[in-house]
Write a structure and sequence with these properties.
- The chain is globular, with a radius of gyration of 19 Å.
- The N terminus is likely disordered.
- α2 packs across α4, α3 runs antiparallel to α7 and α5 crosses α6.
- It is about 45% helix and about 15% strand.
- The chain is an alpha/beta fold.
- The structure holds S-adenosylmethionine (SAM).
- S-adenosylmethionine (SAM) binds next to loops.
Length: about 280
């Protein structure tokens, strides 16, 4: 799923010469949201049309993503949290899938304002909260399902974030956690945020220096890319049971372990579905 999403994104970049029509497409499809979006992503940003191209696809990507998530994480009739929800596209799709309540959280307040407008424009109810994944502003056991998509590589502390994602889950609840895998040659050749060679493996300080000082991008908002095997170990160490992972090789026994390890290390995207032990009281 996610690899296809990133391929589509890459394709959108490759057609950026025709991209001027993409901001128009976004404006026509979501006029109220576009008003806020275009202020937040200034037209002077060298990647403006690229962002417009990506954003104009987000509601549809959100719907496809939620259909995939629902294969392992029940959402209908559930209280659902989306951590690092950006402009709220996945939250909107979760609400449309019949969740009882949807809460989106992101570290950027301007994104939350845009997400509120976007949800209203799409006619769905969702709550958007400003906050940090590392210190979620919710009591223990607040949600039946937690979704965290393409966010871990942006947070300061992977381990603390994983603890928090599991803390706010109710017993028996499920977490969908995915993101780009650090040592994948795919991202080494072209990182998903700035389309540059080699920065997916750099420590954040050096990455920031290279992207902003050497390549002159206006800002750098990526931290450390996670390593799938480490994330899996942290989920288990925090008591979660892995109920599904995207990285199983499906190979016969002898080659199975080698193939599984290689795939875990090198595959572009990891997806884990983890369950918090216990029985849901709700
Ligand atoms: C690549 S975007 C992913 C957005 C969305 N989940 C998706 O896949 O379309 C990463 C998001 O994480 C947010 N973010 C970064 N650090 C965060 C943190 N510490 N806590 C919560 N959100 C954070 C960013 O503001 C951004 O909206």
């Amino acid at each position: 799923m996610h690899l296809r999403t990133w391929r589509r994104r890459a394709a959108a970049d490759d057609t950026s010469s025709g991209g001027a029509s993409r901001s128009l497409a976004l404006q026509q499809a979501e006029p109220q949201f576009f008003e806020l979006w275009q202020v937040a992503v200034t037209p002077e940003d060298p990647q403006f049309e690229r962002w417009a191209a990506l954003e104009s696809e987000q509601l549809e990507i959100g719907r496809r993503r939620v259909a995939e998530i629902e294969r392992h994480v029940p959402l209908q009739g559930k209280d659902v949290l989306d951590v690092g929800c950006q402009w709220g596209a996945t939250c909107i799709a979760i609400a449309q899938a019949g969740a009882t309540s949807v809460t989106g959280l992101d570290v950027e307040e301007k994104l939350m304002e845009g997400a509120r407008v976007r949800a209203r424009e799409q006619g769905v109810e969702a709550t958007f909260v400003h906050g940090f994944a590392e210190t979620l502003p919710f009591p223990d056991a607040s949600f039946d399902a937690v979704v965290c998509v393409n966010v871990l590589e942006h947070v300061r502390d992977h381990e603390q974030t994983i603890r928090e994602l599991l803390r706010v889950l109710r017993p028996g609840g499920r977490l969908h956690l995915d993101g780009p895998n650090r040592f994948s040659p795919w991202w080494f050749a072209r990182d998903p945020h700035y389309q540059l060679v080699g920065i997916s493996v750099l420590p954040p300080g050096i990455g920031e220096h290279y992207v902003t000082r050497v390549r002159n991008f206006p800002s750098y908002d990526v931290g450390t890319f996670p390593v799938a095997q480490v994330i899996e170990r942290r989920l288990k160490a925090n008591g979660a049971r892995i109920v599904w992972r995207s990285l199983d090789s499906g190979r016969p026994k002898l080659l199975g372990r080698v193939a599984a390890n290689a795939k875990s290390a090198l595959w572009p995207m990891f997806v884990f579905v983890a369950e918090k032990p216990g029985t849901s009281g709700s």
